[in-house]
């Protein structure tokens, strides 16, 4: 399996949230506008300036109307800006990403139903996936999967896709995530043939769509831990359809945590991976967000079957 070189990224401090009820080690999303440090990063890395935002937002809207190739759920600036940021303000590439995003949603309408926390209780209880409540040393979100804990007889693979899509849809509300993206850790301890049998070329393509080609959330790195010969079978389905740019984001660590620490500082990792931090379950993460109307409204505006509950706080 190939080993990728570490990307040269400026070392930055994780952003502290502006809202007092969202702490670095608790569940929440940072919805405040970028501070000067993040704006400077966006300008240097993405070419983002106020002039560029104003100009490209109008160009993207004009392209959508003139070509008529896609009908987005929304046309507001905050929605379209996440696609421009994901493609460094290149209007043509941003338009293609928007088309792929909408096509994925249209081809998988079932993913927008049954998004109550109870529907994901088995994923949370089984510790199959979660979103870490803190950022890495570069200020990026970390999505963690433990595929060996997944029981395909109890949790259909479509539920994993649905759970992942919710993470991406809500996570990309953060300006910080739009600008810096996120990283994924796949811990394959305990993976077996029952998992390999679930992966077809169609499933492999769908994983790539979610994490790489059809979401405005930029996946900056994918770290593979505890891979085995079973993973080699699965990887054989992925590697032929991965672009070189995606292959460059893959890092294989085996059981060597010091290798992982070369990319993610232990101060930003859970204890089980040689770090100092705690975790929350996926169910707890989703419950915390969906009990706030700002997130319920976001999902509803993106086509999900969910209503705003006036008895809940806005944020």
Description:
- The chain is globular and about 50 Å long.
- It has 14 helices and five strands.
- The relative contact order is 0.15.
- The chain has helices spanning 36-46, 50-67, 77-86, 91-107, 121-126, 157-171, 175-180, 193-196, 201-213, 229-238, 244-247, 257-261, 282-290, 293-301; strands at 129-131, 141-146, 182-187, 219-225, 250-254.
- With 315 residues, it is of the alpha/beta class.
- The protein has two domains: 36-111, N-terminal domain of phosphatidylinositol transfer protein sec14p (Helicase, Ruva Protein, domain 3, Orthogonal Bundle), CATH 1.10.8; 120-294, Phosphatidylinositol Transfer Protein Sec14p, CATH 3.40.525.
- The model is unreliable at 1-23 (pLDDT under 50).
- The chain has a five-stranded mixed sheet.
What is the structure about, briefly put?
The protein has 315 residues and is α/β, with parallel strands linked by helices.
As laid out across the biggest beta sheet, the strand order is 1-2-3-4-5
The assembly state of the depicted protein chains is single chain
The CATH homologous superfamily of the largest domain is called CRAL-TRIO lipid binding domain
Distance between termini? 44 Å
- CATH C-level name of the largest domain: Alpha Beta
Question: Tags for this entry?
Answer:
single chain, alpha/beta, Helicase, Ruva Protein, domain 3, Phosphatidylinositol Transfer Protein Sec14p, 5-stranded mixed sheet, 5 strands, globular, Alpha-tocopherol transfer protein, CRAL-TRIO_dom_sf, CRAL-TRIO_dom
